From TrEMBL, chain A:
CDD domains: TRX_Fd_NuoE (cd03064). It holds the Pfam family 2Fe-2S_thioredx. [2Fe-2S] cluster binds at C94, C99, C135, C139. Binds 1 [2Fe-2S] cluster. This is NADH-quinone oxidoreductase subunit E. Keywords: 2Fe-2S, Iron, Iron-sulfur, Metal-binding. PROSITE patterns: COMPLEX1_24K. It comes from the Bacteria.
TrEMBL record, chain B:
Belongs to the complex I 75 kDa subunit family. It is found in: Membrane. GO terms for cellular component: membrane. Its cofactor is [4Fe-4S] cluster; [2Fe-2S] cluster. This is NADH-quinone oxidoreductase subunit G.
């Protein structure tokens, strides 16, 4: 887990587009309290922008009618929300116990040396970005790497090389 | 005491109040259960795990004491090896990333983490890896400075802003060892009670910009007092110290619990109002603007009062009942008028529904209890007829509203008996320097008719007299304790039924039926 508390502000006002706006209003009816919309609203933002800028967190808080600090908490707690722009291929590596014991660090080191991205960074050409995330729930097939939302189990550096070459 | 239950602590039978959790109930009988996150005003959160205790009844082996209500026959274990091991382990976890900068930390000496380390931990660090570094001296706004590394993440401050002020500025971001308390960028602390998080913080993570690095906690004398910032009369600790070669000085006010008045908190304005006890004081007794001895001042003042045909005695709404009685006695003897007119102390619309009141004076209700007129009409009439104004600490011109009197006042002889320097002391022929509320004791009634007593906290190197002493010197007939007490009992009959030693510490609710107070 790295420090995710440094939000990026774009300097542009944020709001949901028409489609997300309708989705928000549709979803809000499903929950007993408006606070429950924090996670769905963060997803909608990520769908729309690819990541969650600081302005969006304030927007969501005001739209829901809750404290910005509460949305900030949720956004920084869950590693699935990108708090900075990501590459065309977003790589998430599980860093929780099983994956750590089964060699996630070798994969992280490989990416740092070969592609030049450390957790929380994006490659210069914008192709790849990397995040270390908490348990992805596939401990039995550790280490797990998630690329663009797809799970790849029993990973090692060789397998990752092949995967990445297919993505280039 | 309310209803009680009998239960066992470490095999010993004890009787405690029912309806409480184990922490609160045992605290009353002197048994400590260590805890960071639980606070009676904020409820049980159960996040710190320091209060885990054993219950011998087939429950899970350990339960958090903050979430466990007392019950008849409960067998609570606090000192088993298992519990000690857990306390030891929790402390070790708390201290992994703690900077242990006690020598430069304001909280040192009154820090829960320090105290618990000595009681429950007392081991050398086993950590051989670098600590997680976080934010230091972060300005959270409202005079609150935060140190993320010292924080134990009990979330008391976060819960305070969400549950009490309902402003929710604080949150805990990230997770695991990177978790930290912070504000959302651009939305810092912005409420009138924010400094309570400094009191609430069990460690030195939240410090007050106003108090930081001014005093070590162990040098401070903690006296009980009552805030005179508004008509709520919140209970406070007056923390003061006489530094070597210096004078006794107040360094901070802190909230003191009183369930009848203010609960656990005070407002920031009240907390910082101690500055007015240290500064802006009328330091010396003056005659025509020049320092003089009290004897000289008394002589002149007595002559002026005796010669006056229609003296007007103006009383501050911050005076104690005792002082008001003494002044009223003097006025009656001198056939003068008494007024408690003090609209300049009222800031319409400034109060809220929590602790802050519109009326920025401590004992306005005392005027009503003693039958002292406070109306503008009566004051104006008396002022127009008066040839002498004897002002007892009433800062008449503190707000614009009273500007209309300036003309009349400039033509009038003024004797000021005052703790603070103000426009009236500056124009007074005679100005007596008297003590302020941190230096004397007395009785006041708050806006909700709660009568409270307080005692002197600060003793100056060269004490100035209490206002009552000046009244005595000026020839007031009602200035001794016995007569004043009698007069107070006449005005507030319920007081007659209460021995001074049996006076309730939380104060007396005058709205309740008198019979409730008779301690026959």
């Amino acid at each position: 887990m790295s420090d995710r508390s440094h939000l990026i502000f774009t300097g542009k006002p944020f709001q949901f587009d028409a489609e997300r706006d309708a989705e928000f209003e549709y979803l809000v009816k499903r929950y007993p309290s408006r606070e429950s919309m924090i996670l769905p609203a963060l997803w909608l933002t990520q769908e729309q922008e690819g990541w969650v800028p600081g302005e969006a967190i304030a927007y969501i808080a005001d739209r829901i009618g809750t404290f910005a600090s509460q949305v900030y908490e949720a956004a920084t707690f869950y590693t699935m929300y990108n708090l900075h722009p990501v590459g065309r291929n977003h790589i998430c590596i599980c860093r929780t116990l099983s994956c750590w014991l089964r060699g996630k660090q070798e994969i992280v080191d490989y990416l740092a040396n070969e592609i030049g991205i450390r957790p929380g960074e994006i490659s210069e050409d914008g192709q790849f970005s990397l995040e270390e995330v908490e348990c992805l729930g596939h401990c039995g097939t550790a280490p797990v790497v998630q690329i663009n939302g797809e799970f790849h189990e029993n990973m090692d550096v060789e397998k990752l090389k092949q995967l990445l070459s297919g993505l280039r | 005491m309310a209803e009680t239950v009998k239960l066992f602590v470490n095999g010993q039978e004890v009787e405690v109040e029912s309806g409480k959790n184990l922490i609160d109930a045992f605290k009353v009988i002197g048994v400590e259960i260590p805890h960071f996150c639980y606070h009676p005003a904020l409820g049980a959160d159960g996040n710190c795990r320091m209060c885990l205790v054993g219950i011998e009844d087939g429950r899970p082996p350990l339960v958090p004491a903050c979430k466990t209500p007392v019950a008849e026959g409960l067998k609570v274990q606090l000192d088993t090896e298992k519990i000690k091991k857990i306390q030891h382990d929790v402390m070790e976890l708390e201290l992994i990333n703690h900077p242990t900068d006690c020598p430069v930390c304001d909280q040192a000496g009154e820090c829960t983490l320090q105290d618990y380390y000595m009681t429950y931990d007392h081991q050398a660090s086993r950590m051989r890896v670098p600590q997680v570094l976080k934010g230091k001296k972060m300005d959270f706004g409202c005079g609150v400075i935060h140190d993320q590394e010292r924080c134990v993440l009990c979330a008391r401050c976060v819960r305070f802003t969400r549950l009490i002020t309902k402003t929710g500025e604080l949150g805990i971001v990230n997770r695991s060892d990177e978790a930290r308390v912070t504000t959302f960028p651009g939305r810092k602390l912005d409420n009138r009670y924010a400094l309570n998080v400094v009191d609430l913080c069990p460690v030195g993570a939240m410090t007050s910009k106003d108090f930081r690095f001014k005093q070590r906690a162990w040098f401070l004398s903690r006296s009980s007092g009552i805030c005179h910032g508004c008509a709520k009369g919140c209970n406070i600790f007056i923390d003061h110290n006489r530094e070597k070669g210096g004078d006794d000085r107040i360094y901070r006010f802190r909230a003191r619990h009183n369930g009848l008045v203010n609960g656990y908190f005070i407002c920031d304005a009240g907390r910082l109002s101690y500055h007015q006890e240290n500064e802006g004081r009328l330091g010396t007794t003056r005659l025509a603007g020049k320092d003089c001895t009290i004897d000289e001042a008394v002589e002149t003042a007595r002559r002026k009062i005796e010669n006056a045909r229609k003296p007007l005695f103006l009383i501050s709404p911050n005076c104690t009942l005792e002082q008001m009685i003494a002044i009223k006695g003097l006025a009656t003897a001198r056939k003068g008028r008494v007024s408690g007119y003090s609209d300049s102390y009222i800031m319409e619309g400034d109060g809220d529904d929590f602790l802050i009141r519109d009326d920025k004076s401590a004992n306005r209700a005392g005027f009503a209890a003693l039958g002292i007129d406070t109306t503008l009409e009566a004051f104006r009439l008396a002022l127009n007829e008066a040839d002498l104004l004897v002002n007892f600490n009433n800062d008449l011109l503190r707000s614009e509203a009273s500007g209309t009197f300036t003309e009349k006042l400039s033509a009038l002889t003024v004797i000021a008996v005052s703790s603070h320097d103000n426009t009236l002391t500056r124009k007074a022929t005679v100005a007596f320097s008297v003590s302020s509320y941190s230096e004397y004791g007395g009785t006041i009634i708050n806006q909700d008719q709660i009568l409270q007593r307080f005692t002197a906290a600060v003793v100056k190197n060269d004490p100035v007299p209490n206002m009552i002493e000046v009244v005595r010197l000026l020839g007031g007939p009602v200035t001794d304790d016995v007569t004043i007490t009698k007069a107070m009992q006449d005005a507030i009959p319920v007081l007659a039924g209460i021995e001074a030693t049996a006076f309730p510490t939380a104060g007396l609710n005058l709205k309740e039926k008198e019979t409730d107070h008779v301690t026959a």
